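fyi for ur records
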Amino acid sequence: MTSTAVAAPHAATRPKASSAVLRAELRLFRREPGAVFWIMAFPTLLLVILGSIPSFRETNASLGGNRLVDAYVPVTVLLSLIMAGLQAMPPLVTGYRERGILRRMSATPVRPSAVLGAQMGIFGTATLVSALLSLTVGRLVFDVTLPRQAFGYGLALLLAILCGLSLGAVVSALAPTTKAATAIGSAVFFPMMFSAGVWLPVQAMPDMLARIVELAPLGAAAQALGDAADGDWPSLGHLGVLLAWTVLLSAGAARWFRWE
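which gave:
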């Protein structure tokens, strides 16, 4: 009876406690200028730098008559996601575990899952803000057409965010220390950047390479966003790849994640 009486107040106060965790984590995020810059500002800055190159504003036959700057708007959207999922989130969550913060929370109304949920919510929102910045700057500065298939673009972006943060959760689960989380995140970072088209847009890749890249989560995301930007509904194959990766990565994170 005592355990029931203790558990009931805890259960009743958990929503308020989770809200308090979210507010605290948001304040900490705002005090990290590095994270704010790399996630929310750097992708748009990269778009401005690339768009300032004259050749990026010329039509390109390999891109179906589009310009390179048009193709790089979805790329900068995904770059923000890569920064959040692989460079920012894993070291932070792993650091909480390494310092025993998650273990201590288990004795309070705050569940450790509230911390992970708060991080995913904050980084997901930051990625959305960065995406809006890239789309706005692309439109106002370089006359990039806004996505013609807005609903399909939003769906592809949502799946991409869930997939990227799930990948970050897997890295957080597998890394025993903060240094290991940083190392693993960096090792995965560059292949994800390549598959997202940071160095070469997926649409401009040779056919065989493009088919391989499209099986990667961010390669499929780049193609889905590009299709929606051109006015087409994203390919069910690309959306299916994103959904499959999200399910697999989420299941892996849930299986391997350790709170202590």
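The mean pLDDT is 84. thats all i got for now
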